[in-house]
Amino acid sequence: MSSVLNDLIGPDAVVRRIVDKMTTATLLEDRKAGLEELLEKASEHPAVVAKLSFPLLLSWVPAAKEDLEMLRGILSTVQTCIAPESDAAKAAAASNASSFAADPSNVPLLLDLLQIHDWAVRLPVLKVMASLETHSSAALQAAILSSSQGPGRLMDLLTDEREIIRNEVLLVLSGLTADTRELELNKILAFEGAFDELFRIVKEEEEESVISSDCMTIINNLLAHNPSNGNYFREMGCVQSHVVPLLRRAGGLEPDKLVSDILWLNIIKLMGNLLQWADDKQKMQTVFGKHGVIEVTMAAVAGPDLLKDSKAIGLRLVGALVHLHTPNRILLSQLSLPGDKNGLGEALKMCVEEREAMDDAPHSLNQAAALLFQCYLHKNVDGQQHLAATLMPQPCMDDDLPPGDEPIGRQVMRAVMRIDQADDRAIAIRSLPSVSALTNVWGGATVLGLMLHANSVCQEIAAASPLELPSSGAPEMFLPSLLSSLTKGSAAQGGGIDGRGECFLLQLFALWVHQCPSAAHAIASEPSNVMWLGGTRDDAKQESTPPNVALQVRGTAALLLASSLQWLSDNELQENILNIIDSRIGIASFQQHIQHMLKSDPFVAASKRKEPLVLPPKPSPEDTSWGYAVFGVEYTAVAQEVSEGLQKTIFRIMGGATSPVRGAADAEALRERDLLREEV
Questions:
Q1: What are the angstrom distances between the C-alpha of 270 and each of 215, 249, 615?
Q2: How far apart are CA 593 and CA 600, in angstroms?
Q3: How high is the pLDDT of residue 491?
Q4: Under 8 Å between Cβ of 394 and 404
Q5: Which of 85, 501, 536, 607 is surrounded by the most beta carbons within 10 Å?
Q6: How many Å is the maximal CA-CA distance in the chain?
Q7: What local confidence, expressed as pLDDT, does residue 679 receive?
Q8: Which residues pair with 341 in a beta bridge?
Q9: What is the full DSSP assignment across 79-91?
Q10: Contact 97, 132 (CB under 8 A)
Q11: What is the 3-state secondary structure (H, E, C) of 533-595?
Q12: Residue 254's pLDDT is what?
């Protein structure tokens, strides 16, 4: 009954009568009057108007091009049904948009209307397209791709001098380019000149404007998941003509230009997309290095104006640019910044210095600086040795230079030992509850571990590095002294020392000892070290905040002693250490401490990190609660290798077999003897 009444007196009947009157009208004025009635009903009953009137209205569009008033009325009605402004009409918008897009002739009709320069035509067309993109994106993309001139007409609207038109087409493009399932349209837009037009708008806009951000969003959409567009971007010279000038402007390096953190983050994200999706990453890194991206980024980061998170993402970008790229590594190592500052030296300061008190993201800048060193030193034997050589004190040098101007190695040493100008013998371990001291230790241990990792020359340099040149007598060696201070400080304070600092330093020692017999002997030959490590920090207590400190300290202590066992050449010393472990906690418990660490969330998360990412990865809960990255990638690789060989090492020692390290050393000695005989 209600259906019958609706057909007679309801909205359907009213709209049908209007449509019938427009269909039979012979005078243009009658048709326009019908349009006005239809537009009024569209705001009240958009679904009914769309269903009953769209076929008629759209059939009139070609003829209505000559009558702009008629055309505006038609488009206003279509817009009210598909892209309404009133909340009451929005419920029907999705259904109307889907029905509209289902007819393959409708979208090309809209694209054809974009040739008309009248703003009252272009604006409703773009609003309808924006609604279609929201509710029927795939159909809209397919229709634009099937139109030979569709992408070009959208690009032409970017040059429209009326901001309302230009801004509306930016919204449409932002939605169209965000869908990574259909990259063909993005390729066509790029070749239609999207990069140049969008960058032109960015340069004309204020740094913090929404329009500038929309343009950068579209550019990043065009580059994401699209190696073809990345190659085109590089070959068309967009790095030198657009990226570098905007990077200088956003970083506050241009006269009379204010720093823009929003623009800075968008530009860095753009370069991250280019690196991530490049089919030839080395070539992309070369272009960035050649055109000064590293110099500009480091100069802005070392300046005072950028926010901490902006500096952090800049350092992460530089890390990605020098990763496994020798020319860029050389460039960074020789980089001199304004104020005669050294590039790597400034990065080290950001790694070891404490963050601002009000920072929301704990230590993101410190961790970004550490990533830069990781990328710079990874498989960079010459770079490691160059920095490791600066661990050695030089006569009449250290006393004359302020701490910030010392060689990097000596700055790292001061960080982990917490030596300051007021007290040259102050040791870090005695003040670890201080957040500032903990940051010093974390940053210094991280960088020094990267310098020593898998590099026997650097490990030997570290083993031979004294704290200071003595005026008389034997020098006090740096790393053995640091471990001695760690064991004595912990014992003296009854476990009240901050376990996070112990964990960071124990990881440093593990990287030093791995594959370095002299380092293993330096640690294992000191009874107090063996007793402390052999009990796997039995005085460590579980702390409520942050969580799992004791678990990680015991695991890193056990792994350090296990690595020392594997790389000792003294069989008798190996047996003594194993006996101490067995008598204090038992060999099975010793191995369990290592396994608990290997299975912990921060260790698993760190072991899965591969290529450096410009945008920081999601930290584990423990990383967040600790305020630092608990483990580094290098340490996880060493820990897994040591763990895999530990059982075999224990069986060999218990069976009385000769250490393979000693066997290798003996074989080397025999070769040297034979060579000497030949020379004689």
A1: 11, 15, 11
A2: 11
A3: 37
A4: no
A5: 501
A6: 121
A7: 45
A8: 337
A9: HHHHS-SSHHHHT
A10: yes
A11: HHCCCCCCCCCCCCCCHHHHHHHHHHHHHHHHHHHCCCHHHHHHHHHHHHHHCCHHHHHHHHH
A12: 87
